[in-house]
User: Fold these one by one.
Assistant:
Number 1:
Amino acid sequence: MIEVQNVSKSYGPVHAVKDVSFSVQKGEILGFLGPNGAGKTTTMRILACFMPATSGTAKVAGYDVFDQAMDVKKRIGYLPENPPLYMEQTVRDYLRFVAGIKGISANLVQQKIDRALELTSTTEVSQRIIGKLSKGFRQRIGLAQALIHEPEILILDEPTVGLDPAQIIEVRELIKNLAGDHTIILSTHILPEVEQTCDRVVIINKGQVVAEDTTAGLTHKLQGVSSVRIEAVGDPEAIKVVLGSIQGVAKVTHTAGAYMVESMAEKDVRGELARAMVKNDFTLLSLQSVGMNLEEIFLQLVKTENGDGRIEA
Amino acid sequence: MRNFVTIFRRELNAYFVSPMAYVVMVFFFALASVFFYLFLASFLQNQQMIQMQAQQSGRFQPVNVNLMLIRGLLMNLSVISLFMIPMITMRSFSEDRRNGTMELLLTSPLTNWQIILGKYFAALTLYAAMIGTTLVYMVILFVYGDPELLPIISGYLGLFLFGAALVAIGIFVSSLTENQLVAALVTFVVMLLLWLVGALGTFNSTNWTQQVLQYLSTIEHLDDFVKGVFDTRHLVYYVTLAFFGLFLTYQSVESTRWRG
């Protein structure tokens, strides 16, 4: 549905986005992850036909964002970083205006407005002036604006920013429910959001894609080593020797009553570790695998400078 | 067409939802009223004097309301407009740029022209409504006096065209900045320059520069309209200026995309 090929955007000598390529399949939710200023917004603006790329091509729903912008615009719903609202209007008037410019035929407008209000749970405020609403409601009305014309593709720039935890969960649920009918690309710098809502993730840093994979795959791939945390009673030195002697174990460290056993990712050594502990009469209290979560992966990736941390997908 | 109407209606609503439309119209009407009073008072005084002279000399000459009252009043309305037009046009694009709603407009299936013309005609409608408030004085003049209708129509047509040209320029300036105050100030200065440029020609010895400078002046072209002389040369001038302003606006909106 979305094909981005070698897209770059520069402002004079400054590269906001450099040679970015990725694709999104129909019905998928793609998470666009990166620290602030990484180029997420720029990329999304290019996809939404707000600004053209300096070089490279991007296709949305089969149409080029530059040459066939009008066709693209008809098929996308776009929520910019700051929801584009007219503060002096009531919610309903605003949505009526948006319905108009999105080309919804006059007899369907009421129905579509009601649907958008319902989906974003904003029906209760539909008669209120937007400027008097809380940030959370404004954000949701921004979302209502993006999906009012039931576009094939939704481009959401930080859709949950400024919401309280309960609202965040609501919006994430909403986004998940929308997937399938809609193809969604959303940006965020909050990791759990990607873990919880997205099928795939593109990590971007300093304008470059540093990783692209499924959420699970990325976690897996980055685990060059897997760690097992063991709690046991017994002589620390003896335990370390026993654990260290098991095949596949790379390193054993002892800290604060627990042992961290690192091993190659491909091999699950937990069974052998348990057996060795019992065989040598140590009291095994607990044994658990410690996976690296997306947060650690993310930090690892963005900390690595000049894209050395790039993972071939 | 439907997109244009949608934009036009929202823009017009925005004027009337905010106090701006009322402030502009009330200010304009108040200032226009002061001028009307002054012109009327001086007209009546003149009339008395002329009648006295007529009695002495025995020759009676009717006093022309159009020439001695309406013409001056309409010229002054154009001057008040110079102050009001920046207030009308300053928010046009600046507000959208600051609010981020420009992003909504530019990512919706709209052409730039639909956006620009929607905004332009909304501003022009408010301008026309503002000018229109003074028609009440024309009614008064018709009730108590005997003015000619045609010069009044041509005068108001002139004022409308004068506004049509300047509103286009105001919209263009508004599309250049996010700051409404800057937009208003720059618009005012540009309009003032276009108004005064004819005066530069007055003391110019060479004939053709004088003609060129006077041709460029927005006010020179209004004079004939107000006198009741309809000349297509003036029509062409105002329409050209309006098109030029809108063309520049188009370039500016288009370049916003590239500048980001």
Note: The interface with chain A takes residues 2-3, 6-7, 10, 13-14, 17-18, 99-111, 257-258, 260 of chain B (CB under 8 Å).
Number 2:
Amino acid sequence: MLFFAQIVAMFVTLLVLLGIAGFLVFAERRVLGLLQNRLGPNRLGPLGVGQALADALKLLCKEDFVPPFASGLLYRTAPILVAFSALAGFAVLPLAPGISWAGDWEIGLLLILALSSLHVYGVFLGGWSSNNKFALYGAIRAVAQLISYELPMGLALLALVLLAGSLALQGLGAAGQPVPLIVYQPLGFLIFFIAGIAETQRLPFDLAEAESELVAGYHTEYGGMRFGYFFLGEYLGLVLIAALISLLYLGAWSGPWLPGWLWMLLKTGFVIGIFFWLRASLPRPRYDQLLHWGWNALLPLAILNLLLTAIAAALWGTL
Amino acid sequence: MMLTTTILFYVFSAILLVSALLVITARNPVYSALYLVLAFFNAAALFLLLGAEFLGLILILVYVGAVMVLFLFVVMMLDINLERLKEGFLRYLPLGLAIAIVGVLEMVAVFWTAPIGRVPAPGPIPANADNTRALGELLYTHYLYPFEIAAVILLVAIIAAIALTLRRRPDTKSQAVGKQVAVAVRERLRMVDLRGPKP
Amino acid sequence: MPEISNFTMNFGPQHPSAHGVLRLVLELDGEVIERADPHIGLLHRATEKLAEHKTFLQNLPYMDRLDYVSMMCNEHAYCRAVEGLLGIEIPQRAQYIRTLFDEITRVLNHLLWLGAYALDVGAMSVFLYCFREREDLMDVYEAVSGARMHAAYYRPGGVYRDLPAQMPQYEASPYRDAKRLEELNANRGGSVLDFIEDFTRRFPGYVDEYETLLTDNRIWKQRTVGIGVVAPERAIALGFTGPMLRASGVAWDLRRTQPYAAYADLDFEIPLGKEGDCYDRYLVRVAEMRESNKIIAQCVDWLRKNPGPVMVDDYKVAPPPREEMKTSMEALIHHFKLFSEGMIVPAGEIYAAVEAPKGEFGIYLLSDGANKPYRMKIRAPGFSHLAAMDEMAKGHMIADVVAILATMDIVFGEIDR
């Protein structure tokens, strides 16, 4: 009976997550509209919320088209991999102490990193199997970018793990009570934030799908719900990274008056808002400059951060 | 519970073996590499079943997330002509077979003498076992020197790989980021009137 | 050992940053451009040939459709060519109105360029900010000519009509409430000149906004400084004109070097770049917008003080007033002849050029004394700029090609003609 209830609850979680992703697409368009002196979708439903549903319906109703020159099986698998890798990460993400599917798993953090390497496959296979030159360039860029930024990201997390002495997300969140870890790890926070944007491939770092250069990058040939899966993966990845930032650095569920899980959601929403804001303001660096920045600036900084943290931990002990 | 684990073990092992076989039989090198990825995944799942979660996830992180991506990266960039590769198949067949037989014999010899089944099975895992910590403690005390040596060898390999493949391209126009950012509008822009002297 | 072979990529014509219908065949080594080969002709409409079969007046609207981002400047060049052949002087007020609208057009063009350039480099907001200002200027176009883009406002002999005394206002609609309507109409109470003057007061602030987002932005500098460098000698040799030439540091601007319309009487400066890279071209164009704004303000000032005719009163060239047509048979005949047979232009040839926003836009006209040009040749600035694509892009990366292409301010209407 409990098993059955759990299955139902997981299914509900899944639906809620998909709903959030759909809502974020709409929210981003509205926020960008606000920042860019225009309206954004405002016709369907109150404030235009119905647009999210309409978009999803539109994607679902489109013809399921596989280009004749694509390698079919991989072409079909790639978007699913992307959406899955983003969705599965939420299994270990705690909202508050005890509110999580596997938050006290001792190596939850590693699972998220492992899933992000799965994400690379989705993007790469999608780009390669499309058999399109723009898609291939997008895929190459995506892989180079994801691998390059996974390193500083992992190193920034390592410093955090060193401080907190735990690989479990629940434990890491608990380490941020009552003082958020950003106080101890300001540099690590910046590194993780920048690498996080690169991992989600959002605008300052959206080179893999840079519209003005590569049309739509690795998903140039995709349409309908297969494209929708990539979209879903991108926005869920965004939520995941934002939730990780607020969980690891911004003190997770701590905050006055309101219940813990609400604080967690608010903080995540705040970080997502910053992501939207960045998208509206910044131009896009060039591909080589992005990698240059990742390897020659972010990686040494991350190593330095780790070293300093280790020294500090040896001198004054961990949390 | 025990039964579920056993079933899962056989499922994962079966997929692992099949995909390992497909790695060497697949015609397209890209598919070979992908089957290898699948094999790694199943190996990781087996580790998880054994309770070695850290090892399992590290296998995915390192092999799937880094090594195989680079493999695929290279394989996909190459325009491999399968006909050319198959040309010398018959010519090299005897040599290949001989090496394969030697390999099989060696394996048999190892398994014959290996203490399989003679080592007592490990006891039940304690409830609060943290295998990350246990691994770390073992690696940084007992096996410290091998660990460091391995690290140095890897470093050498990285440097060698970069030094060997680094291609200077004098025909490209490259920019120094520092100089780019240091540019100021005052230095760049000047306003002129262009009108001749007033009559 | 397998050889490293180059990759050939078809950039456009269906590409988001092909700026219309450019087809660019890129030969790539990795992401580095080995060869960039622009293919043109996908928007060819044979304007030059069409012109041989239309009267001088009927040809005018085709000029709008050449460089469809700087419409009135094209008209200006054509009108100057026809006027030169006719040997007529147009009224001073018409000269000032033309100067005013040339500069409005320059601002319009540079705003679109800036927005598109920023969008191509990835900064999407600037595009929408630029369009906010373009909207006001488009309204001015509409107020004087009735059309937002293809105005056909300049005519041989002056301009079609004087500036309206009332700026058109927004009307009530179910989609906006009274408060919003009032906001929209706040600066539309007076004449068109009042509206333009209000715009010139607001505009420097807007340019500051764009510059805040871009000029000192690290990423922006990384994407533009040192990209697509053209030395002054090469710029001259390649036939560059306009901001492309001035960004390389060559002091050349037809408004000053061969003054036309009312430019000789106005105070403005010419911005010059130093290195000739994308950043210089950006700075030059932004500075040009500020200078244009000053010119507009001066023109508005002059036009307020000096009423007068805006069209020559030679009925062989300009139509007689409608009122006169009701009473005078001769005027009616003139009107009929002018709009059916057209004006007769004496035989001869002429080249007339203006400093269009993109560079020197010239019309070469050859008349055999008939009512249609015998031959017309259009000198489009974008054509020679695009021809330098290979030289500018070689050795850069794909992303730079986009930046270089955008910085050329390519419009296919004039290149393919």
Note: The interface with chain B takes residues 2, 5, 29, 32, 215-216, 218, 221-222, 225-227, 229, 251, 253, 256-257, 269-275, 279-280, 283-284, 287, 394-396 of chain C (CB under 8 Å).
